[in-house]
Amino acid sequence: MSKNSSTIHNLSTELAIDPDFSLKSLSTALSNDKIDSESTSLPYTKTIPTLLLYDNKGLQIYDEITQGDFYYPFWKELEILRDNKDEIATKLFNSKNAGTVIELGAGSLRKTQYLLQAMNKLSSSNKDGDTNYLALDLDRLELERTLAEMETQQLDNDVNLAGLCGTYDMCFDWLSEKLRRDSGETSDIATDSSTPLTSIDRKSSSSDLDEAVPARKPSIPTPPSSPGLTSIDKNSLNSTYSVLGDDKNPLSFWHLGSSIGNFDRSGAVSFLQTVKNSLRPGFDTLLVGLDKRNDGKVIKRAYDDEYGVTERFIMNGLSHASRILAPYNNNNDKLLDDKFEYVSVYDEEKGRHEAYYKAKEGFSITLPSINALGEITDGVQQVHIQKDELLNVEWSYKYSDDEAISLFRAAGLRVVHNWSDSANMYGLWLVERPSFNLLPPNLPQWASSARNMSSLQGVPAASDWTEMWQCWDTIMGMVPDSMLHRKPIDLRHIVLFYFGHIPAFLDIYISRQFGQPLTNDHFKEIFERGIDPSMEDPNICHDHSAVPANEADWPTLEEVLEFDMTTRQRLLNIYADIDLGKLHLDRRLARVLHMTYEHMVMHAETLLYMLIQKCEDINAPAGFVMPDWKALAKQWNKEESHQSKQSNQVLSFPKCTVTLGHNDAESSDSEHANDAPDSHEYGWDCEHPATVHAVDAFRVDAVPIRNKEYREWLEGSGRAHRPASWVVREGDGDGEGDVIKIRTLYGMVDFAVAQHWPVQDSLEMLEEFARDKGGRIPTEAELKVLSEYGHTGNDHAAANVSFANWHPVPPKQATELQRGHNGGVWEWTSTPFERLDGYEASSLYPGYSSDFFDGKHFTVAGASYATAGRVAERASFRNWYQKP
């Protein structure tokens, strides 16, 4: 049993919620006369708020719905929770065994009991502290009943149960006030991302990271759809502060039952953004249930069953509405009874079920008048309902896996793990708020509000810079002080060079653009350009900055970081002046902003490539949940088993043409200075111009070469070679083969974990593998065809790019519902890196690509897990690497 009988906190009282909220919401919804543009099959104007379905009687009927076999979302989610409860429980609090759970819309708690029992077992075995469980729901009586039932479960003194009676928005307002009180209204999620790390912020070893608990930021202000928050009674909140426990312990929100499907897709993004703002990076979590895009007949039955249970649930909403409107309609609390019939529709294209009331007859309703301030006046208004008119009451959106990932990424959340039922009809997703969020490529239109545009191209927004700086700071934090003057790759610079190179490059180009002096002349001399010598002859190298001979000749870390902070402020001043109209944005300035931003993007990836060579010496990225390799390996093995049963492993393409590059002549910037400078698609000189290439018919494997098959080939053919991404330790002499580990940014992982990842090796060795298998490495144009057909491209939101993970994942084949991806690595092509016909060398950055048209560099295609969405999205982007 829990320590005490459950407390119910009435949020509408503790937050002084407007008592007329339901009346105002209902009146506004019924007085609307604008046809919903989303609903093309059954157009409607008026609505009944979905909230009205969930009074005490409605909750009881809903519980009855979940008893029926027709309502598969309940049973599929229950299956996931029952079969994976222990694994889920260990992940909720990011390796800690205690914390606080707030379940948003708890319902009957019949599914929740499985997780609570697993959490109870964890808390009992570890004294990180007690587990607190808070159930949020709309009806106090139902909360009291379900919590009382839960207390009869076999929970010991390590689980404290309590209830929150109110709406989602009430819960977040209550939590926000509690957190403001705890933090003295001064805490924030992280330091200003325009300010780089100081030496105090840096960690000397990865073990230091365990001690840091990030400050939690209160959630964002309540959106306009909020239940009329008027004021907060801080005295009444005093008694509830302790219910969240120690603020140093993790917090996990649960949003089960696919309830997020009741929002339209853009509304779901907004809701998740609100939840996100109450999470601390790498510390707190959110567990979300999502129904998948299943067979339409199965979905239709779930919401319109043959027993009429769902219909009773929906029609009860009208009874609730009648009671609310009765005072304005001759106290008739049956005002809407028997005047409507239930209409159920599943829209396959939109992936949503729609529930409507259809009027059996025409009649009028009296509503209170509400002024522009949202206040009820003394006046009234008449609303007429036409015969056969539709009133929408509920939507239930379904999400493919790709759509689910897009939903979370658009909201600034990162998927930590996900589970599916045995029939793959329902998904449970554990997500976190990462320390930065670089948006993925090509978000769906409904998710584009995350940046107020559907494309990541054009001039980088100021917010893009601050997120990228946060990314860069995270990467700098992975480098212990002892590594600053080391070369992870012998033929490259020391790590400190890259810390100074990014701000120096920015400083140089800002100064050139505006004819201003440099912030630091000496830093230009040593940080302007790095070294990239020939792998065959290191003495052959393009022009580069002077390299200090001794460690003492390099600037100190503090000097470099101070310089970085100064250049960031210079950049932000440019955006401020543009916003104030003091500075005109033309194509030339826009190109400088594009170039300096993407330069940082690409060097972040380059530095990570270098650091992974010394992965045993670096810190894990802060603000991200550590991967559970054992659980991930289990999931990937299951997915691989399913994927291996699919047919069409080899894809065939007919003879066709494909376009490489795009039209973006830097030389025309002056001629088109004011031609859409903010939205033009900028690129690098090697991307111009758009050129059409003929491609002969070809056949290609659906997914790239993976570690397991590559190892089998190496060992089976007696080759001693092993990729640089592998670490080999000799066997123990008792018949065991080599022990192989795979390098990651989290250190070494067992080969069994990474066996399904795409292999990373030299072009020379991969060509040898392909020849032995009777094939060859694809050309640049062929891989472009493969991507355009939606097979294994990394140019979409569900691909493993833009730090969806800090490591590769198994590639996925395309299906009818989702695009494929290659696992998050750049792919070699057999095409030497050459000029496109009509190439013009950049005058801004003359040596960007021209130094590498040497026959030794080959084009690599796609993107990696560390490639920002802006680069992954642009189809014209071309990358290259040396063939040893």
UniProtKB/TrEMBL annotation:
Residues 682-882 form the Sulfatase-modifying factor enzyme-like domain. Residues 186-198 have a biased composition (Polar residues). One of its GO terms (biological process) is methylation. Residues 45-176, 247-432 form the Histidine-specific methyltransferase SAM-dependent domain. GO terms for molecular function: methyltransferase activity. Keywords: Methyltransferase, Transferase. Residues 183-233, 662-682 are annotated as: Disordered. The keyword Flavoprotein does not apply. Residues 663-682 have a biased composition (Basic and acidic residues). InterPro entries: CTDL_fold, EgtD_Methyltrsf_superfamily, MeTrfase_dom, SAM-dependent_MTases_sf, SUMF_dom, SUMF_sf. Gene3D superfamilies: paralog of FGE (formylglycine-generating enzyme), Vaccinia Virus protein VP39. The keyword Transferase applies. This is Histidine-specific methyltransferase SAM-dependent domain-containing protein. It comes from Wallemia hederae.
